[in-house]
Amino acid sequence: MQLFLDTADIGEIRDGARLGVISGVTTNPSLASAAGIGDREAYQSAVREIAELVNGPISVEVVSTDTQGMVDEGRDIANWIPDPWVKIPSTIEGIEAIAALAGEGIKVNQTLCFSVNQAILGSQAGATVVSPFIGRLDDIGQDGIGLIRDIAELFRSAQVSTRVMAASVRHPLHCVKAAQAGAHIATVPYKTLLQMAQHPLTDSGLARFLADWQKASKT
Known about the structure:
alpha/beta; TIM Barrel
């Protein structure tokens, strides 16, 4: 399973990229706002800077809600960077926009997916990747990981080329469960990426090794 960073913070992306484990980045208007990006020109500039840091797909979300607006934005975004994935929501208008953009060879990330039916529609429209939001489903008492599993199994049995990206990841266990459920990608916050490397036994083991080495060096 590949790992993407879910952020628009350039500092986080720079630090995450240095680890050598990040294959792409996902952004959205909320993440851009949190990073202090206030308009489309600044967003475009930030996305281009992200593309210089990460050699992989960068997902950039549209803000229009009507089909033609999404298509127009998607065409524009497709010219920003070498490997854009235009994020389109799982609405009726969005499905139509996905079909139009995919028909032009533009890669699409179908976002805000909360059901197998939405994933089926997106895959048939030509989405490159579908992004089920597992954390938001968990928040309302539904099984986010179960949705990942259902979509991944269906796509695999039907030999669908659309990939499954686990989104709205809240903690490291979500990453483990998403991988076990068959997700091709998990997009994670920077904090979660760091947590994936942390374990108290690693810390205590390292401290013991260093203490033993210092003891041996004094003899």
